[in-house]
Amino acid sequence: MAELRDLTGxxxxxTGGARGIGQATAELFLKRGARVALLDLDLALCEATARTLxxxxxxxxxxxxxxxxxxxxxxxxxxxxxxQGPIDVWVNNAGIMSLGAFLEQPEAADRRQIEVNLxxxxxxxxxxxxxxxxxxxxxxxxxxxxxxxxGVPFAATYSATKHAVVGLTEAVRLEHRRSGVDFSYxxxxxxxxxxxxxxxxxxWPPPVEPADVAQAIVHAVQTRRVEVFxxxxxxxxxxxxxxxxxLAVEWIGRLTKFDRFFRHVDPGARAAYVARTTGPxxxxxxxxxxxxxVV
Length: 295
Description:
The chain is of the alpha/beta class and 295 residues long. It is 45% helix and 14% strand. Mean pLDDT is 88; it is low at 280-295.
């Protein structure tokens, strides 16, 4: 087995770092001896998270940035490097999800997911890669989803963005294979965060915890692994459609309730997430009026 990379003293930037997977990932990197910079649109919560993590030991700082805005993200990276030094690891974690039948989703919901989930990743790489390439070292981790390998009904645009993140990472990695910069993309099954609020669980597999995804992200950096499934056995699910007839795959989907996982959503239970991820200037989405918030 290859020796694990020592993370002591490395500076890790995490977008969408104020809560959920981002917070869990920051906490684990700190336990491994790294330093952390949290980026989020919600600066107050980001600062509170950074204080909590710092109190537990280590260096965690908070910065505000909207991943949809390239210039704003670049300015945040400048502030981070001025305050904490060169960025060693950049985790593109920020993402949102709107649910509903494809033909019933407003254009604003499609655009918002593309801007946050895909453009946010593109912007993150455009900001950090020139710095890493110039130094001849670094690691970019893009948080995708099993929806990046399988089309998820009633989350069509979300699935499209995650497929795009997988393809984007592979392409950019090949362009930079001799640069000294490593790339990983992490594909969890549904995670127990607010993203799943109001949804019905699948019969199998059960959702994972943010800490499970954090463990996968940190391990990917330590091992320089490119393609990471959470949990690991989901690799079989990704290749299944290529090994058995489509009718069999769809039968398995019905058996596990994959085909209707997001069909029936409890609007009341999902209202807080919907309100947080949108705002007054946007059209109605999922029954609420709201504005984009990075999560």
